[in-house]
Amino acid sequence: MSGGREGADAKRRRLAAELRRLRDLSGMSGRELSRRIGISQSKVSRIESGATLPTLPEVTAWSEAVDAPAETREWLVATTEGVFTEVRTWRTSLRNKPHLQGEVRAREAGARLSCSFQPSVVPGLLQTAEYSRRVFSLFREVPYTEEEIAAAVAGRLDRQLILYEEGKRFEFLITEAALRWRPGPARLLAAQLDRVASLSTLENVRVGLIPYRAQAVTFVSHGFVIYGGPDDDAPFVTVEAIHAKLTVNDPEDVELYRNRWSLLQQMAIFGDEARAFLTDLRAEVQAGE
């Protein structure tokens, strides 16, 4: 099998095709393979169609069951690992498109539950238009033109309509440092704090704030979003680094983020206590204007 710098989607398709090819060569039915590796026949079909990603243990068991050659087994393992953690640079992601809000909206639309942690900035779904405009104007990796900033802000505001959809749940954990970060004048931040407080009253939105005074039980140096709950078929995590966006699909790695989310929740305040905190912080921001 050959390597190459192909995208995660292409790797996923090649992985599915190769697993199907190996089963066909072995003369084994999908039913027999499912029995041997301990998964359902329907999952075998979903894996071969590319609809479901197999786990690394499943790929290993699959290759053993069909007696794949050693070189092929190595390729299967490397390809599976590559698909489970996708890295896309901002330069590549933004090539020939003004912004990525449509992609993010599609991820949010496909998940019944989204859990977002932000240590340095208010999450996009909670941002006011002016706050969002300032955030995009500070993006240096692939600088935006004024027209592109306007399009990106419009896309972000369009995304926010999903907050009002029945059947969708959103949880946010935001550090005090993120709430205090000010990309503009004090009035801009005051309006942003009001926006967070207002959205926190929605029945399907839960906002937790992590104040400086909270006793630390863990730490996270970067923001992340978990899409899908524990009972969903294929939950995943996105992580935004300076140079690229990472998408984590491996179930074990997703569980690491769930565990970290649980610890972060222990440090947070919610409900009326959180809204009182925002009110006090807003007063402090205005007093220092």
UniProtKB/TrEMBL annotation:
Record's protein name: XRE family transcriptional regulator
Gene Ontology molecular function, alphabetical: DNA binding
Classification via PROSITE patterns: HTH_CROC1
Upper classification of the organism: Bacteria, Bacillati, Actinomycetota, Actinomycetes, Streptosporangiales
Domain HTH cro/C1-type: 19-56
Domain of life of the source: Bacteria
